[in-house]
Amino acid sequence: MASRDEAPKLSSSVKLVLLGEAAVGKSSLVLRFVNDDFQENKEPTIGAAFLTQKCALPSRTIKFEIWDTAGQERFASLAPMYYRNAQTALVVYDITKPTSLTKAKHWVSELQRQASPGIVIALVGNKLDLAATTASDGGDADGGDGGDGGDAGSRAVLTAEAKAYADEEGLLFYETSAKTGENVQSVFEAIANAIPENTLKPRGGAGGFAGSGRGGGAGGAGGSGGEGRVGTAVNLEDGVGAKDGCAC
Amino acid sequence: MFSSLLQKATAFITDVPPASPTSPTSSRPTKTTLFRNHFRLPDSQAPLQEITCELTLPSGDHYAGKLYLSESFLCLSPNPPSSSSTASATAGIGFTLPLCAIRRVERLHSRSYMFALAITTWHGVATSAPPPGGKEERVTLQFVGMRSSCEAFCDRLKRGLRSQMGEVKSLRILVDSCYSEYLLGNSGGYDGVKRSTDGVGADDGRKKDKDPPDAGLGMIFKYPGDTRKLRDRSKMRLWAEYLRGIPLRNLQALSTNGRNVTLVRQPTFHKLIRVGLPNRLRGEIWELSSGSMYLRLFNPTMYRDILHEYDGRHSHSIEEIEKDLNRSLPEYRGFQDDEGISRLRRVLGAYSWRNEEVGYCQAMNIVTAALLIYMSEEQAFFLLSALCDRLVPGYYSKTMYGTLLDQRVFESLVEKTMPILWEHLVKSDVQLSVVSLPWFLSLYINSMPLVFAFRVLDVFFLEGPKVLFQVGLAILRINGEELLDATDDGAFISVLKSYFSRLDESAHPRSENDKLRAVTRFQELMVVAFKEFAGITQNTVIEQRNKHKDAVLSSIESFAKRTQLRNLGPDSKRLTPEELGCTYDRYFGVLYERQGRLQMIADEMEKLATKKRAAAGSGVGGNGGERGRVGLGPTTGVTGMDYDCFREFLTGIAKWAVADSVLSAPAEPAQPEQPGFFGSYGGTAAASQWKNLLNPWGAGNPEPADHEFMKRMFRRWDTDMKNQLSLGNVVSGLASVVGGKRDIMGNINYWFELYDDDGDGKVDREGILRITEALLFVTRRGDIGRSESESDEAEWGDERILSAVSGFTRMCFEYADPDRPEEEGDVKEAGKDEDEDDLLELIASSSDEDPLNTPETVSPGERSPTTPVPKDNAKANLALDPSNPLHITLPTFRMVILADEVLERFFERGFAESFRLIPGSEPQATLANPRLMARMPTTPLTPGNAKGLRGVLDGIVDEGMRVAAEVRRRMEEMDDNREEEGEEGEAADAKSIREGDRDLLKGAEADIQEGQGQADELHVEKGGGNKGEGRSRSVSYGDQASSGVVEFES
């Protein structure tokens, strides 16, 4: 089934949902993660799109079942349908739009109250490439570079501000660029690592699902807890064959 | 004589009664609605006449059916418009003829007992010479019915034709923009046939050189799909044949089925649509079968007018549209081009202005882009209107309730038709709607390859929303086996995705039979959808929608409530979650109920004013007909509470906001206190009496007071200066008056700021008087703040408040700073002349007391009983002289408040406690009717509530009397009372006496009540005998004491 020849690892599927204001780049983040691709004019997501991608950790393989939701405000009432049973969520905002962070905060509190208990939430500031319009290098994701630029297309949300909020709420925090790919893998890896072992279930038998690696029982106590965010590789190469993107 | 009676009787029977006022949430469509939907007519149309008749076409075909006449249309359908008919009339035989498209109506006298009309339409005009075959180019309608009803119908028709003459100009414009006109007018081979241009007075040659009318972006950028594979040419030929009629031998045949507006639907029409429309006719037929053509006909300039009017204007919707313009069908060349993009921008923008309730919803961009491939901007605009308003109502609304509702309907249909698959879905925890929602929302355009999606649209516009369900069910049925193997969302989705990508492949690739092998998967899908699921009718859909509607709306509402309350911001934290919840319910309850009520009243007024509606004019009404629930989304213009709405809102949370006039109204439980506020609307409204319908505050609701204080509060809360309060404004506003940590200083500041109009830290004379008025207004029902230590209510009698307030006024003037001190001398005299009103006297009279002693002297008993009016008190005169401006500052204001125990208590607790956010937590507070209020047992904790004397004060404000004058009157009365009672003269006793008197006066009444039981006896006894016993006695009787109060009040 799986094209991997390594020693059989535990494999679990994890439901991940993306939430955030319209046009902050949710779909683009997923497209980057799943296809390592970027499209300038991406059709807006209607309802939600479903994609999968695997992420290999030393101890196990996580298969992300990604629900990429529509961002427009009025679609918000559909969201519970998608974050139902989600083990993890990516709440995305646009670092050039302060209102999108406000919206992201709303989503965080919605998830904290309504989603499955113990959901792992990552706050992601996207469009980091646009932050580079100020003198500071877009590379460093920490240290608010003070680019509180008023003009469109430059940073308007300070890293420190968002970080402080994320810390307060106990969220993972990253700034990414779906356009350049910066930090995109790291986000998903960090999430994969942050999911508590005991919430992982073995993959159900999904018939007719190409390239899905089946794992054993979930009981394995394969202490990945300590590994933290050390550079775990995402098996992008393998994943390409296995992905099931669907834009319907 | 008999015949005229008969005529009347039949006229009565045949005359369709006008649509009765329907409850906004009534689920069953009215006859008028059914009629409109059946013939896809604009909202202005209602059936006026109907008659059974037989239609004979020029081709010789006969059809029996029912003929309907509305203001602007003559329609024929073989089956009556009912919710149980399988599809709209446009899917069946018949016609929908705008009256302005009728050129001539002749009465045929062929046989004496027959009643028949020959109708010549716009396109059916015989040209210079009648065709050699002698065939009349007209349709014949032979009426079946009593002569009188035939006459009545004709009479009405005659009037209708006359009134619609003016629309001919619009008709001409419309007809010229139709591709069919170009097609038939321009096609070679029938040169002998003159086009029906005599009315236009143009020569025939002109048309042929004319450019074809705009049939969408496809004319520039090519239509999607391979035209050969689509067999576009043969389809076009078939259509030309249908429209023109099969050419007769003499080649002189004229149009037999009409075209565009005059088209007659025969069975072939339906078949031609099922096989897929030819590219260039597609837009026109969509328009025709959806009825949007009639909207366009009657609103010939609307689209351009909107574009012109809103040119350059910005809105949230416009912003959202801009975001999506580059990502709408980006694979189609026309939308990689500026031409396509700007057309899309204009159509979406115009619609968002036309219907701001909907504005713009993602998916509309995709649907509109698809429309624009086949039709002009204007056509797309009206088709989009018909789509959003009628075909898929609520799909794109702010709450998307239509989408969610149809998903529930779809799920229940799957459960019904494919129970095994449904069970599997439930077992594997796959949520169907995650797959099917985009199908419905984008009308399959986003899910299937475009060419196939358009085929679905062809049928959808003709037959209505049931098509979406039929196709969806067919997709699941065809893929049933594979889906049964899929055990999670992902697998489920991938099965369907691969199915959609192979729709053009053979459905039976391994079949021996060539014909069978040639059947594509898409053709198979259509067959399954319309044959196997033929049982899914419009009626099924309507029934299912009604069944699930409440549940869906409730879940939307609870989500909206949760989200909104959570996102209200820091101010909301000062209210408890329960208070917030109740505020939310009350806010939207009032907002939406009021909206529905006003709409109904407006409708009734309009009905009364003009019995006849203006002609077809306002077709694009956008009025979904359903209002009054949060789940249905906001209504145009209702973005917040205006002042009147705010008043109504306040009645539910503060009893001082209830107008005093309700004292005389019959006791009736107030509606807002009922639980399930949102749900209650439909039922109560339907059951309401006629006159209640016209009550602007709603039947049974308390009438709100209107006081300057409320206006100020409204302005204060309206921080966005929009003259409307959002939920956030209201919550912040409430938080500032009742919110947790308010202290007395905060409240004093709050009141001061309320009256410090220019924010300069000064409140002038007028302001002081207004504060006085407001204090009396707010406390007139006895909310002055409870005292924990003093349970003796006599301490908090009304007199206490009165004297406290008058003391307040007096001290304010006493300590006021003059604005222009240098003029002091001049005005000393001025005070004495003409403007010496009651107020002046009062203040003057009070001011001879030592102001510093006021806290001790507020109790009337201790106060010097007879206060002469020393006219020569210069200080007071100065204070009251309008020509001598003065003001108080916040510190003065504070001092004055704190100097009085009663006022202090009011500002410390009383004011905040006068708001009761949670209904039922304090019955007296929420029962709006003071009569009822007074009947509630008076608990020892709230001794001062609803006391008798208060009633005398009621109405001061509404009457607009000078408040101080009233205060003075009170004082005098008290003096009188004291005189009666002698030295001991406690205020409470004064009240008791009055109560006693009143009860004595009502002795007869009391006697009658005696038979009713022990309680009444007690009541009488008390009334007669409590003269010397004071208030404590009456309190101990609880209910009875209150009854006494009621009588006193009235």
TrEMBL record, chain A:
Question: What is any Pfam family matched here?
Answer: Ras
Transmembrane domains' residue ranges: none
Q: Does the keyword Amino-acid biosynthesis apply?
A: no
Q: Per UniProt, what is one GO molecular function of this protein?
A: GTPase activity
Q: What is the lineage of its organism?
A: Eukaryota, Fungi, Dikarya, Ascomycota, Pezizomycotina
List the InterPro entries. Answer: P-loop_NTPase, Small_GTP-bd, Small_GTPase
Its keywords, alphabetically, are: Nucleotide-binding
Recorded hits in NCBIfam families, A to Z, give: small_GTP (TIGR00231)
Q: What is this protein called?
A: Uncharacterized protein
Q: Does the keyword Nucleotide-binding apply?
A: yes
Automatic annotation (TrEMBL), chain B:
Keyword list, A-Z: GTPase activation
Annotated ranges, domain Rab-GAP TBC? 276-464
Give the residue ranges for region: Disordered.
Answer: 194-216, 816-835, 843-884, 971-1050
Q: Which organism is it from?
A: Tuber aestivum
Positions in coiled-coil regions: none
What is the top-level taxon of the source organism?
Eukaryota
Q: Which residue stretches does the UniProt record annotate as biased composition, category Acidic residues?
A: 820-835, 973-987
- Locate the compositionally biased regions of type Basic and acidic residues: 194-213, 988-1005, 1016-1032
Q: Name one GO molecular function term.
A: GTPase activator activity
Tell me what this protein is called: Rab-GAP TBC domain-containing protein
Q: Where is the composition biased (Polar residues)?
A: 1033-1043
Q: Which InterPro entries match?
A: EF-hand-dom_pair (IPR011992), GRAM (IPR004182), PH-like_dom_sf (IPR011993), Rab-GAP-TBC_dom (IPR000195), Rab-GAP_TBC_sf (IPR035969), Rab_GAP_TBC_domain (IPR050302)
